[in-house]
Amino acid sequence: MASQWERLKWLPSDRDARFLVDGFNFATPACATYFLTHFHSDHYTGLTRSFCYGTVYASEVTARLLVHDFGLPERCVRALPMGQAVRVEGCEVTLLDANHCPGAAMLLVRVVADAAGRPLPPPHATILHTGDMRWADWMASQIPRGVRVGTLYLDTTYAQPRYTFPPQGEVVGALAGWVARALAVEPATLLVVGAYHIGKERLFLGLARALRLRVWCSGAKRRVLALLALAPEDEAVLTDDPGAAQIHVVAMGLRPAALEARYLLPAPGAPAAAPGAPALGQEPSGARASPDNMVEADPMAPGPVQPPAASPAGNEEEGGEAGQEDSAGGSVVEVVELCEGEGEGEQSLAAA
C-alpha cells in the first residue's frame, strides 16, 4: 500500500513544499500542482471527480484513465511524455518508466530554482520518487548521464528487503509451462485469470502470446484496455467472443466456489450441464510473498535509502468489474496464487 504520511508526499521536501505526489488526501488550496505516479487506488486515494485544487500531472496513459475512465475534467489533467523534462514549480521533472502497471512512472526531480523562481547555481538537488516500481537493471539507464540522485523516496508497496520477486519473464514462462501441461491433458481447458482494473496485462497477454491463445474480458474491461496503448501483437489476441477464448480475464478475488458458480454450474432454472473441460483459476498476488513461496526467488541486497518506506498494510484493492461471463461447463476447479510481483507487488530496489 502507498504510504499516507504527508511529509513523504511533498516535493522537493516537506520543508520546501511545492507540489504533492500521490498526495490527494492532503490537497489544499495552497497547492496548485499535483502528480499521480500511476492509476492504482492506493495512490490516487483522496482524488474525486470534483477535484478543483489545481492541475494533475501524469503520464499519457494515466492521464487518459483519469479523464475517460475516472471522469476527472480534462481541464484539470496534463499529460506528460516519458523521458522529457518539464519545468514545474522551479523544478525540472522527468517521468521515467516505473516497470509497474501501464502508465506507471517514477519522478526524477531537479531543483533548478527556488520557490520564488530565482535560478539556483549547480549542483542542483536531485530527487527520485519511485511510486510503485519494479526495479530492473535497464531502468538505471533512464537517468541522464552525469545526474546523481541525492534523495530517494521509496513509496512502493514491497520496498522492504524481505520481499523478493523473480523476474516477470520467468514467472510468465513458468505459468505458461504449467498451463501447457494442463492443455496437453485436456486441450479444451479454460484459464481464468484475476486482474485489477489495470495491472496483470503482462501476465495474461504474455500467456496468450506464448501459447497462441485468445483472451476474452468484459466490455468494461475492453474499454479500459483500449486506453492503455497496447502493442499491436497484444491487441491481436483479444476477442469479444468468450467461446473463442481459452483465457478469460475477471476481477480479482477468485475462489473455487465463485469459479464453480460462474463457470461450472448451470444458470438458475437451466438443466444441469454434463461434465466437461476443467477450468483453471490463476490469481497473481504478492501479498504473501516470501523467499519460501517464490518461484525461483533470488534475494537482493538493498542499498541505503531515505526516508524509509512504510510497511505494506495488506492487499491493494484496485477497482474492477466482474463482467458477465458465459458459462463454460466443466468439472474441475483449481485456484493457484503465483507471486509475480506486478500489480500490488514490486521487486525490492537493489543499490545502483
From TrEMBL:
Transmembrane segments: none annotated. One of its GO terms (biological process) is double-strand break repair via nonhomologous end joining. Residues 272-281, 325-336 have a biased composition (Low complexity). Residues 315-324 have a biased composition (Acidic residues). GO terms for molecular function: 5'-3' DNA exonuclease activity; damaged DNA binding. Residues 272-352 are annotated as: Disordered. Residues 301-310 have a biased composition (Pro residues). PANTHER family: DNA CROSS-LINK REPAIR PROTEIN PSO2/SNM1-RELATED (PTHR23240), DNA REPAIR METALLO-BETA-LACTAMASE FAMILY PROTEIN-RELATED (PTHR23240:SF35). This is DNA repair metallo-beta-lactamase domain-containing protein. It comes from Chlamydomonas leiostraca.
